[in-house]
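User: Structure please.
Assistant: Input sequence and predicted structure:
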Amino acid sequence: MTEHTHHAIDYVELGATDLDAAKTFYESAFGWTFTD
């Protein structure tokens, strides 16, 4: 079985008209990574 980290965010869906700009913002602001 897979062990889950308590209170970890593993899925976020955000609406954006400029996907590249949104990814750049969230990567630099929060250190997020994206898997398309």
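Residues 1-35 form one domain.
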